[in-house]
Description:
Layout: H1 9-13, E1 18-25, E2 28-35, E3 41-47, E4 53-55, E5 75-80, E6 83-89, E7 96-100, E8 104-109, E9 118-126, E10 132-141, E11 144-153, E12 158-162, E13 167-173, E14 179-185, E15 196-201, E16 210-213, E17 221-227, E18 230-235, E19 247-254, E20 257-260, E21 269-270, E22 282-285, E23 289-296, E24 299-306, E25 310-313, E26 325-326, E27 334-338, E28 346-350, E29 357-361, E30 378-382, E31 391-396, E32 413-417, H2 431-437, E33 442-447, H3 456-460, H4 469-483, E34 492-497, H5 499-510, E35 516-520, H6 526-532, H7 540-544, H8 552-558, E36 571-576, H9 585-591, E37 597-602, H10 612-632
Parallel strand pairs: 32-33, 32-34, 34-35, 35-36, 36-37
Antiparallel strand pairs: 1-2, 2-3, 3-4, 5-6, 6-7, 7-8, 9-10, 10-11, 11-12, 13-14, 14-15, 15-16, 17-18, 18-19, 19-20, 21-23, 22-23, 23-24, 24-25, 26-27, 27-28, 28-29, 30-31, 31-33
Helix pairs in contact: 4-5
Amino acid sequence: MSLESWVSPQLIIQKNRTFSELRADQGWVLWLERRPEDGGRHVVVGRSHDGTIHDLTPQESDVGTNVNVYGGGAWTYRFSEHGIEVIFSDRRRGGLWLSLQGHTSQLWCAETGSDGKNGYFADLAFSSSGKEVFCVREVHVGDQESAQIVSVSSDGDISVLDERADFYASPRPSPDGCYLAWIAWDNPHMPWTETRLCVMSLEERNTPIYVLEGEKEACSVMEPLWDGERLYALSDRSCAGHERVWAPIAFVRSENRWRDLNLPHAGLEVGLPAWVFGQRSYVALPHGELLVRGIKEGFSQIRRYSPKAGWRNVEWGGTPENVPFPLNKDEADFAWIDAPADHPPSLMIGRPGAKGHRFREAWHLPEGVERADIAVPRVIQCETSDDIGPVRALFYAPAHGKHCVKPDAKPPLVVIVHGGPTGQARTDLSFKVQWWASRGFAVLDVNYRGSTGFGRSYREALNGLWGVRDVQDCCLAVREVVKQGLVDPARCVIRGSSAGGLTVLSALAQSDLFVAGTSLYGVTDLRGLVADTHRFEARYLDGLIAPWPEGEATYLERSPVSWPEKIKAPVLFLHGDADKVVPLAQAEALVGKLEEASLHVYPKEGHGFRQPDVIVDAFQRELAFYQRVFACA
């Protein structure tokens, strides 16, 4: 047994790449890759039929967009007689650019459009002709922001197709070029509360817009996808005998109207909350079949639908982070981002049930590290008094391998509170967990009520109760692992980022279970957050806390800055001074009012630490902080 952990600062600082937005088509695999060794630049990358890997966007570009702050969906592609053409938003140069095979790029549309307005572009889709691109445009005029569905022609002309909604996502043209589908929603809703699936004619663009889903019943619908004349989407509509979860629905145009095909219920939650653009949770296969990647009891699962056999589970030789995409129409091979609990994220090609071929890794395990050195999760369930089912948490016992610090018989516990709060605890291998589990800590990652992956009722259980039920659930999960004798009850600490920071501070005030807490770029003042936050989240708290400003008293009551005297345990605050989501002022407003607290500020760091040296420093500061607290206990 080693006295040191295999999760060293050097491992974290090394240039770890990330993969996202994988697609496959005509034998190619394409994905977006973030490269820390190049200043965090994002590149569209492709693997060709012969296995060679090519950059498909040029060196001078950084693929990304600031739409809704969180971005995503900043690129799309098409195959032409010239090769693969990629159109993308460029963070460095602004505007839309077209690249051919990554060798050259030409401006498609400037940031200041043909209408003289400034704006960013996201969620791109080529028209069937390739002569225009449909996208979401976020328009900036002075201090005012608005959103549009637009088409942008190859000469840079912008045509506004709709601008009546507050927010848009996923403009998708039908393969025959006759229709365009998209998602729209209005304040105070978020894309996971109430949205609409809209369709318009592209042949007669002044005709009325059809609302296919979200008008008769309030639901969250997202990810429209065409398969010939059929239009799919994901919706958490009501379905008799089933929990309301995101699941595929389908429509087809018949006799001048759109008809619901009434697909059978998938039986698991397909899809993720739409914090970013460009997510894909399912694909259409030949003969009316579908392949989906969903969540069941917190774990990834692949299911396949056919009109004859209905839904069935598919064994997969990996743990797909996204839905596997067929490389060709024959479905001989699929590509996916693999994100298992015991191996770094990888790009894979394989077949259902087979092991698969790993052709690119985000990073490499140090030499000699074995399975016993890596902590893997198991589900802890805790019953609540309501009728939505148990609270779930992922529990990681300390790793026991030769490259880990030897754990105590009853180890200390680190409780992780995920952000959002509309988010989820993930099972993939992460430094956030392994840093602690390889150093003798147990880890409890809580999917408190309000988390996604468990249906609409579970998600809505936090409505009006953020700062209450999330705290109750974290405490409930801690009591359960203490009762099972898995951890030392005298050495429990709690850490949370962003929205999770508020839960951390509330838990320290409401419970004596924790001897210390860490807030990473966390919320302390809900009134201040309403005043300072960006447009996308401007009304987010209406559902989580109360309508603003009518519910101002509740905002005060739930804000940690209102009751600093209740927080007796030591607190470490870690924050970036360039955070536009939760400004640094949030931490500064509270730290000086607490009995024992410290604040460390990272220059030029935003929301969610990105710089490797910052991530390492934050981990080391937090570890030293807990060690001091334990020594004084």
